[in-house]
Design goal:
The chain is built from 13 helices and no strands. The protein has helices spanning 37-40, 44-47, 63-68, 79-90, 96-113, 122-136, 142-155, 160-174, 179-186, 193-202, 211-223, 230-244, 250-316.
């Protein structure tokens, strides 16, 4: 049987070690005259500045450290621990065709939410829900597919009903809207839930984009009638993220392309799975037909033997 590799819907987002403890050895080489850094201390007056060798996580004199420095030293689950929690909650093996992709989406989702800059919003929730819908829509065991969604969200410390409710808020709002309506909302105009999310992003220089947010925007494009092609969505993504929200659009546009490549491969997988299913049904039908034919031939033989036996008995009597 042909092995089909499902394309991953998610890739590693951003690192989460911004606040990991960092130490500097005093015995490393100096940037001045090849001296060790401990000898460089004696040359401070000659150099005309003081050399600070100790770095305290979260205590740098920067706006970023002042805002997020209180998170320094927080214990953060590793990707391995997150996946372990997921598999324990799931409690059943994952179909081999989906194992790699699901492992990846667990890891990337975890890396996103543990980033200090991450703030969950309803567009992100919509993207997560639609990503999982797309990935699992043809999963062979529907009850297991539902459990995968529940286990993934729960292992991330979130509640499935809240994620679904947030996604529905955006889906309900965007229904019946136009592309221009969404553009205005993403500029922060009006009092819609999308405008509230956009306003918060516009006001936050450290606002964090992630892939699920981009997929949420793609789903909104689909709802307002944007042509679902790579080029059209690329152009709209550039407008919405850069021109409307004032954020760099490069990663979002790349994620838009990635989404369509992934969807194309999933569609191909769906076609192949249907072909396999059709072939299997034909084989089953052929087996049933062969079995029925064998039963009929056996019945004919039995009837023939019985007739011959009766004729022989009649002759002998």
């Amino acid at each position: 049987m042909m092995l089909i590799t499902v394309v991953s819907l998610a890739a590693v987002i951003s690192g989460v070690d911004a606040f990991a403890p960092f130490t500097t050895s005093h015995n490393t080489f100096s940037i001045s005259r090849g001296k060790p850094l401990n000898n460089l201390l004696a040359d401070e007056e000659e150099l005309g500045f003081a050399v600070g060798l100790e770095y305290v996580p979260g205590k740098a004199d920067t706006d970023f450290a002042k805002r997020f420095g209180d998170k320094a030293g927080d214990k953060i689950k590793t990707v391995g621990e997150a996946y372990s929690d997921f598999t324990e909650l799931l409690g059943t093996p994952i179909n081999a065709l989906y194992r790699s992709t699901i492992t990846d989406i667990v890891g990337t989702t975890h890396l996103t939410i543990v980033n200090a800059r991450f703030k969950r919003d309803a567009i992100w929730s919509l993207g997560l829900v639609k990503s999982l819908d797309l990935l699992l829509k043809n999963y062979p065991e529907k009850d297991t597919a539902e459990k995968i969604v529940t286990s993934l969200i729960t292992s991330m410390g979130m509640k499935e009903e809240e994620i679904i409710a947030e996604a529905k808020v955006i889906s309900d709002w965007v229904n019946g809207k136009s592309k221009d309506d969404v553009s205005k909302a993403l500029k922060g105009e009006g009092d819609s839930p999308v405008a509230a999310i956009a306003s918060a992003a516009l006001a936050d220089e450290y606002w964090m984009y992630s892939r699920n947010f981009g997929i949420g925007l793609v789903e909104m494009m689909n709802a307002v009638g944007v042509e679902m092609s790579m080029e059209s969505c690329f152009n709209v993504m550039e407008e919405w993220v850069n021109k409307c929200m004032g954020k760099p659009q490069y990663t979002a546009c790349s994620d838009s392309d990635y989404y369509f490549r992934g969807k194309a491969k999933l569609d191909m997988m769906e076609t192949l799975m249907k072909e396999v299913e059709i072939r299997e049904k034909k084989r089953q039908a052929q087996r049933l037909e062969d079995r029925a034919e064998a039963v009929m031939k056996k019945a004919e033989r039995d009837a023939k033997f019985k007739a011959e036996e009766e004729k022989a008995e009649a002759t002998s009597s």
